[in-house]
Design goal:
- The protein has 132 residues and is mostly helical.
- The chain contains six helices and no strands.
- It has one domain (3-129).
- The chain has helices at 3-27, 32-36, 39-59, 68-88, 94-97, 101-129.
- Helix 3 packs antiparallel against helix 4 (68-88) and helix 4 (68-88) runs antiparallel to helix 6 (101-129).
- The longest helix is centred in the C-terminal third of the chain and has 29 residues, at 101-129.
- The protein is globular.
């Protein structure tokens, strides 16, 4: 993966949580300035999985080719989790529901990486055994 495309993927993946937070705060009730003070901490929590993947890709250039799909999956997990919290979780319990976001995101990334490396090893072994 070219460094420029990695930078674009990383930027989009880290901006997506911010857009969700700002959208929620703009649609919320109460004084806007009071609600905006929590945006940095909320962003850090919601973007933590993406930030971890981006840091791995930035520090290990050989892994950059593996981070595109996890970043997309994590963004989809964030979209789905946000929809679940807003659609099905009672308002007075929504804060507690977010406790499950980080373990879910971690499980998605670990599952993807395990499947990816098993698939990669399988195809590498098949390619080697075929004489190629």
């Amino acid at each position: 993966m070219k460094p420029f495309s990695f930078a674009i993927q990383a930027t989009v993946a880290l901006i997506a949580p911010l857009l969700f937070i700002l959208g929620g705060e703009l649609l919320g009730t109460g004084p806007l300035l009071e609600r905006l003070q929590y945006v940095p901490l909320n962003w850090l929590y919601m973007a933590a999985p993406q930030l971890l993947v981006v840091l791995v890709g930035a520090s290990l250039p050989s892994w950059r080719r593996f981070v595109g799909w996890p970043l997309l999956l994590l963004t989809l997990v964030l979209v789905g989790f946000t929809a679940w919290v807003h659609g099905f979780v009672p308002a007075n319990e929504s804060g507690l529901a977010w406790v499950f976001y980080l373990p879910l995101a971690l499980a998605v990334v670990v599952t993807y990486m395990v499947v990816k490396f098993i698939w990669y090893d399988f195809h590498r072994d098949v390619h080697i055994s075929d004489g190629g």
